[in-house]
Structures are given as C-alpha cells and as structure tokens.
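Continuing the series of single-chain predictions for the mutant panel. This is the parent chain; the variants come on the following pages.
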Amino acid sequence: MASTKLLAVLVLLQVLSLHVHGATATKRKPGAGGKCHVTGFLHGKGHKCNKKNGSECCVEGRRYPQFRCSPPVSAKTPAVLTVNSFAPGGDGGGKAFCDNRFHKDSELVVALSSGWLRLDGTSRCGKMVRVQANGRSVLAKVVDECDSVNGCDEEHNFEPPCPNNVVDGSPAVWKALGLSASIGEFKVTWSDV
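Parent structure:
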C-alpha cells in the first residue's frame, strides 16, 4: 500500500516537472520581446582586413557567434555604437546594403545589426533613426546592415559577424554626439523616428 502511494507521488512529480519544463522552454520569436540568443557559429577564415577605425579581423579556425535577431526596439533601445567608414576604401567593405552606394565620412549615416535592419519584420533601409549619447542626439539615415550572420569574407572586409546590438555610425555621427571615434565603442540608445 505504501509503495503504491509512493509510486503515485513519483508519477505526479514527473508529470509536474514535464509541465513546468515545457512551459519554460518555449522559444520567443525575434522582436516579440525577451532576449535574442546565438543562433549559430561562423568558422573564421584568416585574411587581412582594413583595420581603419579599429576593425577586428577574422582569425583562422575561431568560432564567431551569429544572430538572426536583435533585442526588441523601444523608445530608447540600448546599443553599442561602433565607427565605420562607408566611403570607398573604408573599413565598411563594399557599397551600402540599402542603396548600393558609398557614403562620405561627413554624412550622418548608420548601419544596424541584421535583426534591427530587416529581420524583425520592419525594413529600416532609408529611414531615419535617432541616436542618443553623451547628452546629445543626432538623426542619421540607415544605409547599411551590420551583418550579424555572415562575415570573414571580402564583402564584409574579412571581419566577423556583428553582435546583435550594434549601431555602426559614420565618423560624422560620432562627431555630432561629441565623441572621439578613437574610442571605438560607446554605449548609446537609439529609436525609430
């Protein structure tokens, strides 16, 4: 009799643990709130990249995280501002993804991580965004993708995929925010306009 009760309690505990595990294991869709997690890894191929603006070159055999999502966009979306030259011969690689053009370092332009640019269901190509930092804000045009999936090839200046939370700004964006591009990275917030 005691073993039957013990068996019933164990079965009940097993059912409850499966129910709790199933409830917590559901995946969130990108852009639906919550966090964005690594979706894969890209194996690096060694090659020389243009190190202007402190670009990181891929290392042979190193695994680089890939993201097919970015954190949810809000009125003050936290991000990391990096510096990028969208000009010919700059560290941005080829022409901008959105308009297939190069842009002068004096233009107020940015690239967004893949999830923010287009993978969250909103195309931000050609749209204006507000970037805030250092007590200042600047309006910049989205012209390119900071690719969070692909990299380590000529198209991406032999750089690894971007993290999922990057606003890659031209030197003019850094200047408008009163920041020295030599810093390399700076915590900012951004929003759609």
